[in-house]
Amino acid sequence: MAHDDQDRVTALAGIYQAVACVMRIARSGSADTATMEPCIYSLFQIDAANVAAVYGPPGAMANGARQLVAQLTGQPKRDLELTRYVVSVIRLERKLSARPDLMEQIGRGIAAADALRARGPLLDPELLGRFADLYSENLSPLTPRILVRGASHHLRNADNQVRIRAMLLAAIRSAMLWRQLGGTRWQILLGHKRLLAEARRYLDLASHRPPADAGPRGDAQ
User: How many CB atoms sit inside 10 A of residue 168's CB?
Assistant: First the structure.
């Protein structure tokens, strides 16, 4: 598909949004379903017409774009742990891209999970469990592993473990899209001005769009 800087920022915002969900679950044990849904939705979008369609309704990655702006400007504050996760996800995705056998297994697993999506909400526990298993079986063995930090009692909770792994898989999906669009981690570290401008433009466009009738929907958990 054709792409531009806005498309790259949309994919990057997808990484930030999924990672922010991971951090919220690990720190507080809670999750924002409206923020998680488009991340999970993106896992099924193999032949999307364009980058925006990967995530569903217009502005679906607004949370991730806000996270990116905060990291670049320090307003309201930077979270260096968030940046560490994002860089770790990008590194892990590059390891995965060198393993077509693992990518094929993940692809088959997502295709099998698509039947569940037709029967229930995007955040159905069984569906999330399938994605968590795909992450554990195919990505956890790769190095460097992503070590999730948070409150121990939240990290020991089985439901939280499932949600975290499913969201990490979604982050990897966005990292793959980011790479395919020409994104690199050096752009994150050095290309602040362009990224910031595009992230702000994404948020501005999102704020002027009417609510979409179609897109990912799921029940609250």
Answer: 26
Tens of pLDDT, residue by residue over 116-147, are: 887 889 999 999 999 999 999 999 999 889 99
Query: Is the CB of residue 161 less than 8 Å from the CB of residue 144?
Result: no
Instruction: Return the HEC string of the chain.
Output: CCCCHHHHHHHHHHHHHHHHHHHHHHHHCCCCHHHHHHHHHHCCCCCCCCHHHHCCCCCCCHHHHHHHHHHHHCCCCCCHHHHHHHHHHHHHHHHHHCCHHHHHHHHHHHHHHHHHHHHCCCCCHHHHHHHHHHHHHHCCCCCCCCCCCCCHHHHCCHHHHHHHHHHHHHHHHHHHHHHHCCCCHHHHHHCHHHHHHHHHHHHHHHHCCCCCCCCCCCCCC
Q: Among residues 12, 67, 69, which one has the least CA distance to residue 42?
A: 12
Cα–Cα dist 125/146, whole Å: 22
Task: Name the pTM for this structure.
Answer: 0.91
Q: In degrees, to the nearest 5, what angle opens at C-alpha 128 toward C-alphas 127 and 129? A: 90
Rounded Cα–Cα distance for residues 96 and 203 (Å): 31
CB atoms within 10 A of CB 214: 7
List, for residues 143-168, the tens digit of each pLDDT value: 889 999 999 999 999 999 999 999 99
The Cα–Cα gap between 206 and 212 comes to 11
